[in-house]
Structures are given as C-alpha cells and as structure tokens.
Design a protein that fits this description.
Layout lengths: L1 H40 L71 E9 L6 H8 L10 H9 L2 E6 L2 E2 L14 E2 L4 H6 L4 E3 L9 H15 L2 E3 L1 E2 L2 H4 L3 E5 L2 E9 L15 E2 L6 H12 L3 E7 L10 H13 L3 E5 L7 E4 L2 E4 L4 E3 L5 E10 L5 E11 L2 E4 L3 H13 L4 E3 L4 E4 L3
Parallel strand pairs: 1-2, 1-15, 2-5, 3-4, 5-6, 9-11, 11-12, 12-14
Antiparallel strand pairs: 1-16, 7-10, 8-9, 13-14, 16-17, 17-18, 17-20, 19-20
C-alpha cells in the first residue's frame, strides 16, 4: 500500500513538472509575439503639460513696501551705447508646437531638456517694436533674426518677461513716466516667437489697472501661453506652473522686487502680483515647487536700470532662492545685460537685458539651460544684439569674442567658452 502511494506521488510530481514547463514555453511565446508587435509599430509618444497644479496654502498678504521704479531713462532708446553691430546671416524658422501639444515624451534619448529664456519684451501699441512689426507687414523674421527664432522655437520650454498688459480697457496709472498696453491680438506675436510661458511680475503689468490685468490673464489663457508671478488672487500669483517633459517635471515661479504701488500686490481676495521685497511668500512657492518637481526655475524682476552689475540685494536674494530649492535663477528689469554666477553649483543669470523692447543699440542674449540626464544643469548664453528694433544673433567670431569677454568681465567666478557655455571657476 505504501509502495503504491509512493509511485502515485512520483507520477503526480512528474505530471506537474510537465505542466509547469508547458506554461513556461507558452509565456515565452506570448512575450516574443508582443516584442515583434512593438518593434513593428515603434514607440508611442505622448506629452503631459501640467499648467494648473495647485497646492498653495492660504497665506495672508504681507504689507510689503513698494519700490517705485526709477523710470527717468529706463524705457528710452540708449543711442549712446558703445556697441555698434550689424545683423548677421539667418536660417530657417522652425514653427513652434501648438500650446498644450508639446510632444516631449522621453523615448530613451540622451538629449538634454532645453529651457530658453529672454529678457524684456514690450508690445505696446504706440511703441517701437509693434510699429516696426506693422511696418514690415507683420513679418516677425524682420524683427528677430531667423536663427534666433529657430533657437526660441527649438527650446522645450521658452520663457520671457511680458512687460505690459493685453487689453483695450483700463485707465492709465497717473504719475507714472511710462505705461504700456497692447491690443490682445498682439499675443499672436508671442506664438510666432515660440513662447510657452511669461512672467507678469514686473513694474508694468498693472499700468492700466485691474481690468487690463484681468484681460491679460484671459488673453494668455486663450492663446495657450502660461503665466507666473501674477493672478486673480494671492494663491494664483504665487502658484508654480509645471511642465512634464519625458520623465522630468519642471516648475516655474516668478516675483518682482520692483513694484510701483502697494495696491499692485495680490491679496487673498484681490488680483495683483507677487513681490520679493520681502521674499517670504516667494520662498514658500519655491519650496512647494521643489516638493512637487525635479527642477525649479525662479524668474525675477529686480536690480537697477542701466547698471551692468547686480546690487548686493540681488546676489543675496539669489542665494536665498537657491537655498529654498531653486535650481536656477533668471533675472531681468535693468534693460541691460548683467553677469552670471554659480551658487552651490546652481546657475544665476542676473539680467538678460532688453530682448525686443525699444530701438536702442545694445547687447542682448538668449539664455539656454540644459537639463542633462545625470541631473546636472548647464548654462549657455547665445550672444545677441539689438539695433533699430531688430534683435539678432551674432555670427562674426570677433563680435562674439568681444561679447563673451564683456560678459565674463561683469560676471563672478565663471568662464565663458567660445560657444557661450558658462562654467563655475569658484572652486
């Protein structure tokens, strides 16, 4: 009896082994068929553009002092500038993707994510850029060189400072030397430039009051262009905007150190912008952004106009932003280029100057940040200049060398190579 049971047990074990082997073979066949199917059809790609994630705590608006802008010469043409440059050769423009349809899925490529940044842009109806644009039959390639537009459209995310409101409503702010307002239809110019996101934290977004700023929000929303630094209330003004590119999430926040009046600040129930005279609120935003993303960019309006060197508070604030979690700090407002610096290995660009703002002849630049797969952030400045309301990339080697030498002179412990890559020499 025992011998019979032993034989039966052995048979059951042998049968079970055959069943297991059969299932294993079948599983391998299914996997092989799936692999063949995937190889034939290729990888599917998708994009995930998140522009409305909120996790903002309710914070009461702090009474922050205003810093009325010194506008005595800020928006005027700088005809006495020493730079005398002529437009260079140009290339074909690559159209920008439609808003909300960025195809940025990581397919295993080692290519870095590229973030592009420009300084101040002014599309006021009665000012030089729009007059030039209309005079050339709205041909943007006659306002910004084709190679520069190609770089802007080629960035994964392109950002600049929107130094005006989009509206036909509102009342001009009294006792203000310069006030800027664009017709809402002009937002199409940003689309041609490949712009994905703008900062509204500056000393001109409220030039025509709350109605015009509300129209600005609606206009940008309608065009599919994101904005940071201002909103219908404090929570929206300080809210980070997120982009998911491949497997990385990038956050953008913005604030202004230069605010014209106290009622320009956003409150719990009132529209306006976020300030950084007292940086407490924007530091909260940076910390929130760091907790919810892989990279954080802080875009800030600050500094003294027409000064190529940052003042002490700019350098101090930049360090505070980075200590709070920012991976890069990009500035504007002085209307001239300021230098570069690294702090704890994180890049700082103190001012990108005028990008397309007036008819002055001066240096400009397009900043590119490369987010590499290993987590490092590389910084490159593409040398540009403005002349007669035309912004263009420099191509002559002598002009580029002079540009880089000047930028190195006004920077802090950096080297700038012949291709514009900026490296830290502080260690």
């Amino acid at each position: 009896m025992k011998k019979r049971n032993l034989i039966l047990l052995v048979l059951i074990c042998i049968l079970s082994l055959f069943v297991f082997i059969g299932l294993l073979v079948y599983a391998f066949q299914l996997q092989h068929e799936s692999d063949l199917k995937d190889g034939a059809s290729g990888q599917n790609t998708q994009s995930d553009l998140n522009s409305s994630e909120t996790a903002n705590p309710s914070v009461a608006a702090t009474a922050i002092p205003t810093e009325a802008a010194d506008e005595s010469n800020s928006e005027t043409s700088n005809q006495n500038a020493s730079v005398q440059l002529t437009p260079d050769a140009s290339f074909t423009v690559t159209p920008t993707p439609a808003a909300g349809s960025l195809d940025q899925t990581d397919t295993g490529s080692s290519d870095p994510i590229i973030l592009g940044f420009a300084g101040d842009v002014n599309l006021d109806e009665n000012y030089y850029p729009v007059k030039k644009y209309d005079s050339v039959d709205e041909d943007i390639q006659k306002c910004l060189s084709e190679d520069l537009l190609e770089e802007m459209n080629g960035a994964d995310v392109m950002m600049l400072n929107n130094e005006f409101s989009y509206s036909t409503r509102g009342t001009k702010t009294p006792d203000k030397s310069f006030t800027f307002r664009a017709d809402p239809s002009r937002v199409d110019i940003l689309k041609k430039m490949g712009v994905d996101i703008v900062s509204l934290a500056n000393n001109h977004a409220l030039d025509y009051g709350p109605d015009a700023l509300l129209d600005t929000f609606d206009t940008l929303d309608g065009a599919g262009i994101d904005y940071v630094g201002a909103g219908e209330n404090l929570d929206r003004a300080k809210e980070p905007i997120y982009y998911t590119i491949g497997d990385k999430k990038i956050a953008f926040v913005a604030a202004s150190r230069v605010v014209f009046a106290m009622d320009w600040y956003a409150s719990d129930t009132g529209l306006g912008m976020i300030g950084t005279y007292d940086p407490a609120l924007i530091l909260e935003s940076i910390k929130e952004a760091q907790a919810n993303s892989d990279y954080v960019v802080m875009f800030v309006h600050w500094g003294i106009e027409r000064e190529n060197y940052p003042v002490d508070y700019q350098r101090n604030l930049a360090k505070m932003y980075i200590d709070a979690g920012a991976d890069a700090v990009v500035g504007c407002h002085p209307h001239v280029m300021q230098g570069f610096e690294y702090y704890k290995g994180k890049p700082i660009a103190y001012s990108l100057g005028n990008y397309w703002f007036n008819q002055s002849t001066d240096k400009s630049g397009l900043l590119k940040l490369y987010l590499d797969k290993d987590g490092t952030v590389r910084m490159q400045i593409l040398p540009a200049a403005t002349a007669d309301t035309f912004t263009y990339l420099l191509s002559k080697e002598a002009d580029k060398k002079d540009y880089y030498d000047f930028m190195k002179e006004i920077s802090f412990d950096v080297n700038i190579d012949a291709d514009g890559f900026i490296t830290d020499t502080s260690y």
